[in-house]
Amino acid sequence: MSQAIQQKFVHQVIGHSSEQNRLATTKKLGKGKAPVNIALSKYWGKRDSVLNLPTNSSLSISLPGLGTETKIEVLNPQTTQEDQVYLNGQPLEASNAFANRVSRFLNFFRATPQTFFKVTTVNSVPTAAGLASSASGYAALVLALNDLFSWNLDNKALSLLARFGSGSASRSLFSGFAIWHQGQQADGLDSYAEAIETTWPEFCVGLLEIDVKQKPVSSTQGMQNTVETCALYQAWPKQANQDLQTLLKAIELKDFETLGKTAEHNALTMHATMIATWPPIVYWQPESVEAMHKIWHLREQGVQVYFTMDAGPNLKLLFLETEKPAIKQAFKAIKVLEPFKD
Amino acid sequence: MSQAIQQKFVHQVIGHSSEQNRLATTKKLGKGKAPVNIALSKYWGKRDSVLNLPTNSSLSISLPGLGTETKIEVLNPQTTQEDQVYLNGQPLEASNAFANRVSRFLNFFRATPQTFFKVTTVNSVPTAAGLASSASGYAALVLALNDLFSWNLDNKALSLLARFGSGSASRSLFSGFAIWHQGQQADGLDSYAEAIETTWPEFCVGLLEIDVKQKPVSSTQGMQNTVETCALYQAWPKQANQDLQTLLKAIELKDFETLGKTAEHNALTMHATMIATWPPIVYWQPESVEAMHKIWHLREQGVQVYFTMDAGPNLKLLFLETEKPAIKQAFKAIKVLEPFKD
Description:
The structure is a homodimer of 342-residue chains. Chain A has helices at residues 2-14, 17-24, 97-106, 133-148, 155-165, 219-229, 236-253, 256-275, 286-300, 324-330, and strands at 29-41, 46-48, 53-54, 58-74, 84-87, 90-92, 117-123, 177-180, 193-195, 203-208, 306-308, 315-320, 335-337. Chain A is of the alpha+beta class and 342 residues long. The longest helix of chain A is centred in the C-terminal third of the chain and has 20 residues, at 256-275.
């Protein structure tokens, strides 16, 4: 049942060309490249897990310096019985969770059940460590499929497909700020991301890597547990959507203080819903908390710096170019990115 | 206006003897002693800050080994123009926050505006480090006043007065488990604590002191900020009251697993509301998070241990006597108390 709904969604997005391409693909290789994105107003909770539809809209900034490059080829059906997935140069077992998830996504794009793909994906970010490699990963994969099958899809359709692969991937098709509209329709065709045109050259993101190990609870599992067991979660969608409106205005006005406060409060509120889940989901490590207190201390001293965190222990610092020396002084190991310059 | 409401409350609790005792106290010295209590289902948020009335009921366990001893004397009005407050052997300046708060409480009990008191209070717990010294402090002070003025108040009246001094003090008049009924009345006369008769000799509480410094945000200020700025807070009172019912049943059935889970989830939910407050209230230190992860790891290994935390960085571990060796092994510096044996 849910597979039929999913297949219908994919057909609606790709359109008539889909069927033709399945039979008539002549290209040997498709390529795609997409950046990581960091949400300033988070996606946490699905209203529909079959089509990957969120309970709230979200807003992000892409980091062009980091992301995923993916190549996809159709394998010879005579010699191959399964997909081949390479991650960062390593072949993955079919039983690997990542390879498995990719194959299930590719099921919707096979010419016949005997069509298998070779997917070669290279991340310039650690996988599953809160730097949203699945976002850039699914965006790059969708771009690679679009190239392989010569679909010539527009950004909206690409974003819809990427979202279907992994929610926040919908936002990784763009540079700069992007907004993912939660949408209202049951068919999921109005839940996609768009670029916000504003550029902000002074805007900096500092990556503070606390821990790059695989995280103990996946985002998908984490948000499901939160929705099911966290009483506080009921207030989240409304706050998230209010934060998004505040952020949109702050971006328009280049009001960094409001942007910083809102993004930090939003991230802490998302983590609060995790912490109040049972069993508790605490992605924070001791070093995460140490860094938070350090940031608050810097702020008391007048440094305009805020942070956001995704479903992991790492912090992403938000500040303007003028504060770069103070930030680098305080955090020796920080990697500073300039999303509108990189 | 609010002072008149407060004075009326005090009169209603103490009754007629109040006026007489003000004029006819012959005792020179009153003494009181009260234990610290640790809430298994927390008090967080006031519905009325004039009378100190909570938005939800709460449930605690007293730690007879730790607490406050207080002596109170009436000073000679000829030679004294202010209260004298001694804390742990040190005289406090009148401007000291603690001394000031005690004096404001004592204003309701002066025979004349020129009556001043000497209060000598000794805590066997660090002040304001999340071990609720204000709870045992106000309970002991009320007992000392009751002794000084020979009020002969019953437990309900003592609890009402202690609550008026500091909410959780209402629960520090009892040993063992106690429940503080939130009450419904505007006059605050139905918001007091009672003992739960069940004893549980195997019940242990382990104190893990992370940091005994004065905390950066007082509970009073913290809960006010939370109520005002935390959208998630709206779900708290209902969860807190549900948790309390679950705990009552677990105590009755001596179902330790349910008690532990419920207490830990309740504490984390309270901290979640703090974390989602703006500016954020994060009492956790790096070592707090380290200890949490260690506890969850122990639980994965089959050790039945849970924790609770108050408005501070310290953890209070909950376990039964059988797990004491494993706990002491894992946490070398832990102080283990047995509330029904100490």
